[in-house]
Design a protein that fits this description.
Elements lengths: L1 H19 L5 H10 L8 H6 L1 H13 L8 H23 L9 E2 L2 E2 L6 E3 L2 E3 L1 H9 L31 H13 L6 E2 L3 E4 L2 H4 L1 H4 L6 H8 L9 E4 L9
Parallel strand pairs: 6-7
Antiparallel strand pairs: 1-2, 3-4, 5-6
Helix pairs in contact: 5-6
Length: 239
């Protein structure tokens, strides 16, 4: 009987230890700081040269998937990092390409290629974005995940972590909205990124609007009835 109790206690201890394990995102920070500039320009050849360390981080994501005991910020940071890392992985698998749209896998684009490995599950990038991140009700995630194109919000050259997540998300949101290449803001007229058109419903949650969101993070006060136009999206690779 004592042996059975001991064995059960040992298994419980192992389970608890496993549940508390977190992925080491410092590995991702090291790679990002080596191969991504402060402007978000990505050195894809550099990632290819560092493929062993890169793949070790992807294994880390696969083996230390979010558990029920993780906080919302831990999960959010994890999936943002996973989205960004796998975007680069898929691009370098087909590199050189002129656009992320050129990275095809059995006729599927990189956003619908079901090879994002997290725990026992396989996801597409679209599933990570739509079924996980967007359901966390934080539209700032749209400025944290990077699609590999010049018109996408820049890739932050450090990993997202739970302890800094709110500050990081606010930073990248402000930088994107206040960047005139992506958004031209005036009181009575705005020319903004198509991200605000594609995900308009996310910015209208809780009675808000695209204009109120822009006013929260922008540097210009826009009138509620301002005319809205959307800028052409540049799908060239962000290198």
């Amino acid at each position: 009987m004592n042996r059975i109790i001991f064995t059960l206690s040992l298994l419980l201890a192992i389970t608890i230890t496993h549940a508390s394990e977190r992925a080491d995102h410092s590995k991702w920070t090291e790679l990002l700081q080596k191969h991504v500039t402060s402007k978000g320009e990505v050195d894809y050849k550099g990632f290819m040269d560092d493929i062993e360390a890169f793949d070790e981080y992807l294994i880390e994501l696969r083996e230390k998937a979010p558990m029920k005991d993780w906080s919302k910020d831990e999960k959010k940071a994890f999936y943002i990092n996973a989205y960004n890392a796998y975007t680069i992985k898929f691009i370098i698998t087909k590199y050189p390409v002129k656009s992320p749209k050129d990275a095809k896998f059995s006729g599927k684009d990189l956003w619908n290629f079901r090879m994002v490995l997290i725990g026992p599950q396989r996801y597409t990038l679209n599933q990570i974005e739509d079924n996980i991140l967007r359901r966390m009700d934080d539209p700032r995630i749209h400025f944290a995940i990077n699609c590999g194109a010049k018109s996408c919000p820049k890739l932050l050259n450090e990993a997202y972590t739970a302890d800094k997540l709110n500050a990081q998300l606010t930073k990248v949101t402000k930088e994107f909205i206040q960047n005139s290449e992506h958004n031209t803001l005036k009181a009575k007229k705005v020319q903004i990124s198509k991200i605000f058109e594609w995900y308009e419903e996310d910015f209208k949650e809780n009675g808000g609007s695209v204009i109120s969101f822009l006013n929260k993070y922008g540097d210009v006060t826009i009138q509620d009835d301002a005319k809205i136009e959307y800028k052409e999206y540049n799908w060239a690779l962000n290198e």
